[in-house]
Write a structure and sequence with these properties.
alpha+beta, 9 helices, 31% helix, 32% strand, elongated
Length: 320
């Protein structure tokens, strides 16, 4: 029986996720609900979920970032609703992410999403989370209104930009220069980073930006962790405009991190983006940028990046 052919009279209810039994059906549901905006990374993630269920054991789970906690809505044969609950630890405090909130189209508007989300909130509070977060497509107005009713507040909108495989020629401008980062520049660079990547969301798939600080700790990190680190600054008329930071990784899809002055020169930014992609792009690497929605759109596009999706970050701070 497939998820697209569900019996309408079957009895469904909420229960805890069974990671040894439910993951393939959860993957099917998530794929059905989010296939419109799913990228290669998302499809790979679903494949990992299906594969992990066929390879039970500690090593299998340790090597795959699977949802080990959550709730489903369904019965023994099918799953029509899901929520994954993912804990994070930052500065000795618990933060919870509610993810993969999905309800089969034929079962929507029955209170399932509300019940699952409320259960996720209760779990986060039970385990001492200082805040609970979720992501939602910026134009999913029904879901956004539901989350507001449950106490979530909009925090920020962020767009994921993917690098186009076609590599345009590196453009030159005699008044724009690409340089290596200087040690005395760190204080200003750190302020730019704080604006581009607010500290309250760095727990989610972002590096410890201290690895980019010049000094002995950065040097030791590169020696012992064996990650390559690269940074480039673009200047116009002697004034820094933006910096790109990159940390080598074994994953095929890797981010580059961009931080700029408040009103960065567009041509300088395009030049820097083109330079970085010229240095980093390869057939085995997919580059992307996570950035504030609506900022530097023209520069990203002219440098060959394509917007994949824009997510609204929402947060519910838990009173202690």
């Amino acid at each position: 029986m497939t998820i697209n052919n569900l019996p309408q009279k079957s009895v469904h209810k909420m229960r805890s996720l069974n990671i040894l039994h439910d993951l393939p059906k959860v993957a099917d549901l998530v794929e059905l609900c989010f296939k419109k905006n799913m990228d290669n990374e998302g499809r790979s993630y679903l494949q990992q979920m299906r594969s992990a269920s066929r390879k039970p054991g500690p090593l299998s789970w340790a090597s795959n970032p699977m949802p080990l906690r959550g709730y489903i809505w369904g019965n023994q044969k099918e799953i029509v609703g899901n929520i994954s609950i993912i804990p994070f630890r930052r500065a000795k405090k618990n933060i919870f992410l509610l993810a993969n909130i999905a309800v089969h189209p034929e079962f929507r508007r029955q209170g399932i999403a509300r019940a699952l989300t409320q259960k996720g909130i209760e779990d986060a509070e039970k385990y001492g989370a200082i805040s609970t977060w979720l992501h939602v497509e910026k134009d999913n107005f029904g879901a956004i209104e539901l989350y507001k009713e449950l106490g979530f507040q909009p925090h920020s909108e962020r767009t994921t930009w993917l690098l186009d495989r076609k590599n345009p020629p590196l453009q030159k401008n005699i008044s724009i220069y690409i340089t290596s980062r200087q040690a005395e520049f760190w204080a200003e660079q750190n302020r730019w980073i704080d604006e581009a990547y607010p500290r309250e969301i760095r727990w989610y798939r972002m590096p410890d930006f201290e690895i980019f600080r010049p000094g002995i700790m950065s040097w030791l990190y590169r020696i012992f962790v064996e990650y390559d680190i690269k940074q480039w600054v673009v200047e116009k008329d002697g004034e820094p405009q933006a910096i790109i930071m990159w940390k080598g990784a074994y994953a095929r899809r890797t981010p580059i991190w961009l931080a700029t002055v408040p009103q960065a020169d567009a041509k300088s930014l395009i030049t820097l983006l083109l330079y970085a992609r010229h240095q980093l792009a390869s057939s085995k690497r997919e580059l992307y940028i996570d950035y504030h929605a609506g900022k530097f759109v023209g520069a990203f596009e002219q440098a060959g990046f394509t917007p994949k999706r824009t997510l609204l970050w929402m947060v519910k701070n838990n009173d202690k």
